[in-house]
User: Fold this.
Amino acid sequence: MSKLDRVIIVGAGPVGCTAALILVQQGIPVVLVEREPELAEDLRGSTFHPPTLDMLDDLGVTEQLLPQGLIAPTYQYRDRASGAYAEFDLSLLQAHTRHPYRLQCEQYKLTRTILPMLEASGLAEIRFSTQLASITQGDDSVTVEVDGPGGPQTIEGRFLIGADGGPSKVRQSMDIEFEGFTYPERFLVVTTDFPFEEHLENLSYVNYISDPVEWCVILRVPGLWRVLFPTDPDEAEADVLEPARVEGLLQGLVATDTPYDKTHITLYRVHQRVAKTYRRGNVVLAGDAAHLNNPLGGMGMNGGLHDVFNLCPKLAAIMKTGAGEDLLDLYERQRRDITIEFIQNQTIQNKKNMEQIEEEQRLQHIADLRTMIADEEQAVAFLRRNNMLDALERANAIE
Ligand SMILES: Cc1cc2nc3c(=O)[nH]c(=O)nc-3n(C[C@H](O)[C@H](O)[C@H](O)COP(=O)(O)OP(=O)(O)OC[C@H]3O[C@@H](n4cnc5c(N)ncnc54)[C@H](O)[C@@H]3O)c2cc1C
Assistant:
């Protein structure tokens, strides 16, 4: 088999690993290049949406993920001041998905599950501690220079998938603009084993809590709660992370006699950006390399996974059956359009809903959601939109 019969994937995050698994299961060899010496174990994405679980199920992954996470059959929108809340029941999606629930499971468990499957496939060459340096394109090939443990090396392939995250070297090498904006405020995520469920009435595993000053998201992962807060854009990072400040945020949620036990504290910038194009010749972008959004709704990783479930069968069709490369333009039309139409708009709106200043508006929002919940047809329509089913249906309809 020629070296040109394979796909180079840059980045072994959830999107790169999943792309590799889809391709090897279709009989396409891959070279997966990862800058770090091992898979990341960071606390980032932790919500898998129902259609993502369906797709991963087709790869034999969901059954391995389920015991590593928590099934969230419901999720809530709450008003922090009044305690009023609206709870959506995902079981209403039974006719729409094989997995009518969200799975609360850290994203590193996905990559850890996939890695041995790739190794067992015999079709995946995985190179850790290897960083992309440059890309050159031929008519039917891509050549990359990488810096690996043995020094500079050259890798050739038929196509290259840039799954190397937000700062994407692939996107930069292809000179692709990353259009959009960056929020002035950073987001703070504090992870704790404090039992919020014993203090906040009827908490779900996923809770979006609105407040004019300090909205927050409270999410459960196995054994821990993660709480996400916005921070003051004018405050220095050191001040935001000052232990008494962080403690104060948690005490503001539930006051306790003893300090909270905090497992992790992360402060990060949040962007709403989409690459101007997802394709330059034989190089295609997917995941965070192609789009970034705020985490309110848990759509970043899920959207990236949906990218490669769309892209990789198209690559396989081109490589195995000689289908036209215009399939890659279809990939861009299907995934880029819906990223803007659904994921960007929805996540921007989610943030606006949570930070509404007027109490009346916030309570009206909860009341509107409750009205929707009371009407099954409206509730299903909301759940389909909110859990990425509509976006996928719309993408598939784009020609
Ligand atoms: C706090 C937080 C909460 C989140 N919650 C959710 C959620 O609940 N649901 C959800 O869907 N999403 C969520 N997200 C977003 C999610 O984490 C990302 O969308 C997801 O990690 C994107 O995956 P990726 O594989 O595209 O990129 P990454 O996970 O960033 O992986 C990119 C990989 O490429 C490697 N790399 C980079 N440059 C190079 C190079 N030059 N050469 C070789 N390798 C390279 C990196 O080392 C990395 O391993 C959250 C994000 C944050 C920060």
User: Anything to note?
Assistant: Residues 10-16, 33-36, 40, 44-47, 107, 131-132, 163-165, 169, 189, 268, 287-288, 295, 298-302, 304 surround flavin-adenine dinucleotide (CB under 6 Å). The CA atoms of residues 37 and 243 lie 31 Å apart. DSSP finds twelve helices and 22 strands in the chain. The first strand starts at residue 7 and ends at 10.
